[in-house]
Each structure stands twice: as C-alpha cells, then as structure tokens.
Amino acid sequence: LFGPHAVSALSRGTAWRSQSTSTSLDLSGIYPPIATPFMASEDVDYRRLEENLLKYAQVPFKGLVVQGSNGEYPFLSAEERVEVVRAVRQSLPQNKLLMAGSGCESTRATVQLTEKMASAGADCVLVVTPCFYKGKMDSRVLIHHFTQVADQSPVPVVLYSVPANTGLELPLEAVVTLAQHPNILGLKDSGGDITRIALIVHRTSTQRFQVLAGSASFLMAAYCVGAVGGVCALANLCVSGRWDEAKALQQRLIEPNTAVTRGLGVPGLKAAMEWFGFHGGSCRSPLQPLTEAQTQQLRKDFSNNGWI
C-alpha cells in the first residue's frame, strides 16, 4: 500500500523514573511499517532493504516503523532485529523518526532489547503486548510490564495493541494508567475500534499522550476523534483539512487494505510491494507466498480501486 503511485496520490501511582523525556517527540504524521526483505536462503537481504529505503526517501513521511508486525519480527532473532534497525538508521535521514519494535514475551527480554534498539539508533520503541500467556495478561500484569520497560528505556516507549495477531487487546484502563508515565509517549492501536480510540484520546487528554491509527482502513475516522497520525500518507490530507479528497481516498483504500491486513497478511503486503516498485519477495518460513488465486484476487482489489 506504500508504492510510489499510491503514495504520490495520497501525499497531495508508581514512583516512575525516566531516562528520557517522552514529551520531546511529536509523533504526528506518517509512518510506513516497512517489510524485511529476505534472500532465497532466508537471510536478511540488506541490499534490497537499502534499495527500498531509497524509494521511501522520496516520500515526505515523518519516519519509519521498523521491526513491527509487517517486518516479521517474530521470525527474526534478537540480533537480527537490532541489525535491521541499525542498517535502517544508517540510511535514514537524521530528521526522520525511527520507531523500532522491541517487544518480547518477557519483561526482562523486552528491557534488554529496548536498550539495544536505542543503541542502534531508534528514536523511540514500539512495544507489543506479551501474549503467549494471554489468559494471564490482565491490566495489573500489563501495567507492571510496560512500567518496568518504560522505567528502564533510554528512549520513549509507544504501546502497541494489535489484537488480530496477539489475541489480546491492551485494556482501556491500562492505557489510561500508563499514559501518566513520563516515558510512555503514546499508543499504536491496530484494533480499529473507533469508539475505543476516541475514549483513549478523551481519557488521556490531560497527558501529552499521542494515538496512532494502526491501519490505513480506519485512519480518517481515527483522525476525526483525535489520533495524531498513522501508517499512510492520507494523514497529510486530513491535517490540512482536505476532507473531501481524503474521504475519497479512504474509500479507495478500504478493499485493498482489508485484503492485506485482515486477510493475506505479510505475504499479501510483499506481493503488492512488487507491483509498486519495491522489493517484497518471499517471507521467512513458515509463512508462504500467495497462491495464484490469492494473487489474482489481490490484484483485482487494487485494480478495481484505481491503484494499478
């Protein structure tokens, strides 16, 4: 969804101790969540990653999300995750914000990886909810987890709720409590519940807490209730007040975006990237390429809405 043609169209009560000041970072804007290209051997293809970054450099984005869900982070080792972030930081202009995914299942591992991501050049970290023991991940447990991470993080923390992947939504009350932490900057919410996003914005209005829409399919609606940005250049139209144009583009995004994010996942994203001049390629196993029928349907979803 972030190929050159698409983008060009869219771009028209705890004693918390903090080692950084989250309020110094303004999250408002566009963050393409980049994919991780692989060689046939399934090693990370840093040459193709660099070529993709050169294409992203042509777009007026606010920054990049690296090693999020679209980066296949569960399939990479901690060392690979850090190395990918380091490689992106070396190519990314210093005025572009790098948000690095550092979430792990244990608090200890998340703290350690967060520190390594900061050393590799991340401006802030995106921390997903632990989910393997999701039946035990209630508000008390999650508040403790994110507090420990934020207490020890050298950079600001962005909470990450992605129930489609984790089977767990970060509870509203936990978000409201965590928003008071001086080193927790905001939330990337990929659930798509606009009422929930509106409530979070309302309940955290006395804090400098920033909400990002986690999908292009509900970006415009999220902007209407107070989100500050998202994953698509449609954000520029909303902020500049070009609502009629933004509405039309939002409607054209729904079918292809739903096909990728709700249906085909990363294999679908990588297939679409190839159509728009980026290196997508194959995923790391156990994810498999799209079938011919899936590819044809996805291409139809894009062509029917005027993207290809």
Give an overview of the whole structure:
The chain is an alpha/beta fold. The chain is built from twelve helices and eight strands. The chain has helices spanning 4-11, 46-56, 78-91, 107-120, 139-152, 163-166, 172-178, 194-203, 219-224, 234-239, 243-275, 292-304; strands at residues 29-30, 63-66, 97-101, 124-128, 157-161, 184-189, 210-213, 229-230. It has a six-stranded parallel beta sheet with strand order 2-3-4-5-6-7. Strands 1-8 form a two-stranded parallel sheet. Helix 4 (107-120) links the parallel strand 3 and strand 4 (124-128). It is globular, with a radius of gyration of 18 Å. 47% of the residues are buried.
Mean pLDDT across every amino acid position: 89
Order of helices and strands: HEHEHEHEHEHHEHEHEHHH
Q: Strand fraction band? A: 5-15%
Radius of gyration: 18 Å
Determine the N-to-C terminus distance.
11 Å
Total number of β-strand segments? 8
SSE-based structural type: alpha/beta
Main beta sheet: strand number and arrangement?
A: 6 strands, parallel
List keywords for this structure.
308 residues, alpha/beta, 6-stranded parallel β-sheet, two-stranded parallel ribbon, 45% helix, 11% strand
Topology of helices and strands:
Elements: H1 4-11, E1 29-30, H2 46-56, E2 63-66, H3 78-91, E3 97-101, H4 107-120, E4 124-128, H5 139-152, E5 157-161, H6 163-166, H7 172-178, E6 184-189, H8 194-203, E7 210-213, H9 219-224, E8 229-230, H10 234-239, H11 243-275, H12 292-304
Parallel strand pairs: 1-8, 2-3, 3-4, 4-5, 5-6, 6-7
Helix pairs in contact: 2-3, 3-4, 4-5, 5-7, 11-12
Keywords: Lyase, Schiff base
Binding site for pyruvate: 231
Organism: Neogobius melanostomus (round goby)
